[in-house]
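Can you give me the bound-state structure? Components:
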Amino acid sequence: VTEPSFEDLLRNLAPQVLGALTRRFGSFQTAEDAVQEALLAATTQWPEQGVPENPRGWLITVGSRRLTDQLRSDLARARRETAAAALLPPLELVAPAADEDLPADEDDTLTLLFLCCHPALSAASQVALTLRAVGGLTTAQIAQAFFVPEATMAQRISRAKQSIKSAGATFGMPPAEERAERLRVVLHVLYLIFSEGYTTSSGPDLQRQDLTAEAIRIARDLQRLLPDEGEVTGLLALMLLTDARRRARTGPDGSLVPLAEQDRGLWDAGSIREGVALISDTLTRARLGPYQLQAAIAAVHDEAARPEDTDWPEIVALYELLARLSPNPMVTLNQAVAVAMVDGPRAGLDLLATLDRDDRMIGHHRVDAVRAHLLEMAGERAEARDSYRTAARRTTSIPERRYLESRADRLADR
Amino acid sequence: VKYVVLIYSNPTTWAEMPAAERDRVLGVHNKTIKELNESGELLRVDGLADSRATKTIRARDGVPVVTDGPFGEAKEFLAGVWAIDVESLDRALEVAAPVAEYDTVEVRELMDLSGMEM
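Here's the bound-state model for the whole set.
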């Protein structure tokens, strides 16, 4: 176990500092910029001068100073522009001393998450703002993780803050009657951040693992704050149980290794233990939800020492519950694979055929990929090969295309 | 989701267009680019130099041979390339549509390195 780096320290402090400054100065928008500057100042000064005794106080002081400077220049401009400047409150009233005692900031993380995942924002903006305001990542880091120019990401973040402002959102918890729906959005944003990092793990994209780690870190915080929300625990468990397979899911050349062919010795036993414990506990006491069910399915996979030890009937039962709770073609797709493992490939293909009439799945490469897999199981090599080729043509993922083409080639050779 | 918007133009159409109309159409292009930039959806925009300055390279018997001018007998040539990052294909088509008044516009999704294990 290594000492937490000062980078970790900064990221933990970022939402607390932002919460404190927003409450003090009243504007999330300007406080957010000030925190970024304070974090950047820390990144350059702490390695040389050492971490200050009270790092949070240091960041709040630096952030306050930036905000005060900002207010002062706004004030000067106002004074130049209008004689009414005399009516503005003296600066000391706007900005209290930085070293004053602050209340515990535990809940700021939660308030910030709700604000950053405001429904007025697009998903891409929610993700970007959450990573910056709650995660304490710089715009440059976020831009790099999403392969977009820094200017684009800066624009996205500034637009997001404007949208929050014009939606009239304030720095506070959403009203009780909106809480459940707003929490659902927060969980979805964390899930998006996680999968963005998890689905890429090769070559020049190693930094994207930071996204996975960041999503898990925020989900852990959230779970600590809301231990009785079953879906929060479910999502954290799902992330841990999925991320546990990360080292096994790609070959050295970046190719994708399917679950059945992964070296299970590479799975992270610690994450699996933690994920299984979380999901087992929450299933006994919380109201059931889709993240919990997906975590339970991941747990069944992760607990099988060999692929042939997988408890497929259990997985089928869990997918049936999931399909009833949140019917969705992607669920049907995975369910078809599980059904094929229990009742044979024909049964799986029959279930898959129900998706042929689903507009949402027309032309989707995953349908062809699953069909190819089940046809191969059924021994229909020529049809399987055609389906693999169709899937390969339709995917926009380079590693998936390579994988699907190799399956097709294998069937052509023999 | 990242897309490229490929704009193919017929130089004759543009050469024969009245100046006021050309200004109006370019205004539509610039307005679209400005909006994409402000919303954080624009990755980059490039206009391509005159098609007559194109060099085409083809291998003949394994040896690359350079010739003057674009490949083929097309009347329309690639004139501009935008890269955008938007929520969906519908959004990509929505932003690209105003540009298609006189030009042919192709919208194509970019491949990426993400992938799910199957």
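A couple of observations. Chain A touches chain B through 43 residues (CB under 8 Å). Confidence is low (pLDDT under 50) at residues 87-102 of chain A.
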